[in-house]
Amino acid sequence: MNPASFRDCKAWQADGLSLSTTSNEACKLFDATLSQYATWRNDESLGGIEGCISAMQKADPNFVMGHAIAAGLELVGTGSSLRLNERLAGDVARLVEMAAGQSLTPRERLHVSGVEHFAKGRHSEACEAWEEILLDHPRDMLAIKLAHDGYFYLGQQTPMRDSLARVLHHWTPQIPLYSYLKSMYSFGLEETRCYDEAEKVAKEGLEMNPQDGWAAHTVAHVHEMRAEMDKGLQFMASTEKGWEVCDMIASHNYWHWSLYFIEKGQYEEALTIFDNHVMRLCKASGSMLDMVDACSMLYRLEMEGVNVKDRYRELLQQTKPHTEDHVLLFNDLHFLMTALGAKEEATSRRLVETLQELAEAPGENLQHQLARGLGVPMCQAMVAYDQGDFGKAVELLRPLRYRFTGIGGSDAQRDVFQQLLVHSALKSDKKQHQKFARCLLVERDAARPNSLLTNRLIQRANALHI
Fold first, then answer.
1. 52 with 90: CB under 8 angstroms?
2. Which residue has the higher pLDDT, 411 or 1?
3. Looking at the whole model, is its pTM more than 0.85?
4. Distance between CA 189 and CA 186 in Å, rounded?
5. Are 208 and 182 spatial neighbours (Cβ–Cβ below 8 Å)?
């Protein structure tokens, strides 16, 4: 990134996105922070996102949007719980108080409102605030990106796609970060199963910028959902040099790479990626995305019969401190995978019990509201599966199978729970569950023809003589 290209006060105003500060340095550092967020990359030459935020707040300690982006990025990282992190709770409270005492533009006030909503677990209201900004300011990349992430956490695939469709025509290829706008739109297309168009738009973005890790990520999803394993392997290998520099998405792209190997039954190759990339990057970053990917990968391998207990124990050191965060159900479910895999009964029990407590008095937090009817029974199903009570796991998961989107994430990420339901049904001693497993596999084969993983499971079902 070229620091000379970052916008000062006048440049932001010229773009119709005025910032309430007189500090040109603060404006440029805000732009640098936003650019790194949009590109999934901490640029060491700029000091990374944390360095830019620190310098920005020193340049103008009263810059409301500087504090808004700082709190917003920490919150969407989902690694800090407002209930447990007094410093973060204080930052959000000070942001709201600071905004109330200053003369801000309506756009800036909506940004503060969005951050406050998100902080309190009102994710839908947060997205509404960012969408309100985009009605008048369709080139506000911060609002675009925060809404995109918000919809992702909500599992709202169509709004995630349409949010980008509404603003894309206001941009041109000459505007900085345009390729990343295309890549976000391509991901929305992929998640709404428009695979041909998703691949086309993503590759247009990659042609403009081979280092667009999010565009590469969309193509990886397309190959996964089509069960095009060899094409996926070839694509990831041919584009690795571009996206491996995107430190905030690189581990996730390696995770996608590993899924192709798991699908093909090439477990040693998958474990090599886990050891050399996924786990290494997870330990280095402490990022929730990297963490949940590592959890999911081991859980999938274990369901395939691979012994990964030692790796679970190593990963537990990363996930255990977040046992009681309960920021996202998606995170909780993945942390439980590792606690169960590492045979840490106390940690597993504490995670489920504290989630149950929040579900009983959720307040306005959407994740806690969803916990009672979705998150907690999914956790209980995983515990039942771990204890060998496969019939109970089926009975808990079966009524929820069309509601899994509510935990957020992508189709590819949530597929681990569909696999769990199939494995539970196959292992249940009840014939009706085994017949249900066969039906699930017929569905799976129709949705993703030529899946080697599905074929292996069908062979297992056939061996039961259902």
1. no
2. 411
3. yes
4. 5
5. yes
